[in-house]
Design goal:
Elements lengths: L20 H18 L11 H14 L21 H20 L12 H25 L8 H28 L12 H18 L1
Helix pairs in contact: 1-2, 1-3, 1-5, 2-4, 2-6, 4-6, 5-6
Length: 208
Amino acid sequence: MAAPRARAEITRHPMGLPAGSVRAVLAVAIAALFWTILLLPESWNIPVPLFLYFLSIMVLLFFFGHGKSIGSPEERPPWGLPRGTFRVIIVVGTIAGIALHYYLHREHVWRRLQPDVDQLRAQWLYLVIALLGGLGSGWLIGRGPWRRSAVFQDLQAWVSLLAMLGLVVEMIIVLFINPNLGSDLKLNLTIWESVLTAIVAWYFGSRS
């Protein structure tokens, strides 16, 4: 009697998109939030959130992940766009953002780039734990024997959605909600930004 044929395991990338597509969106969203805050008027008095500096590591992982964790040369590039499109967007956007920031705020060019001291004291340890824990656990779990199972790939898809939604919520809070609240009513984002950092880092780790 012939032995039953092994069930083929199929790699399904999140949302049915080419490998690296979700990471491309997350990397551009992180960079875009950074650029936006840099270009805000001084009167808004919004420093760059500390967690964005930590998530910049994810942007670097995406930037240097092409051909390694983000698909081989034979696979379709992220979103089916010409290979390197998102890297060009990140590089050009960063150069343009910094140049425009210097032009608009040359008298205080470094002020907004310096992390807020109070925020640094309150958040750095949480963010270090979130980043290393998320990235490390994602990397380890993403290499388990279940990595090609439908359940695990569905989990990755859901985490990718949470990461994208979380960045949108963060942008709304930082740019529109907190600036319109009194100092005693502003939302404390320490735990929220740590959780968001862990989610984004876990996703990048599991897909790296």
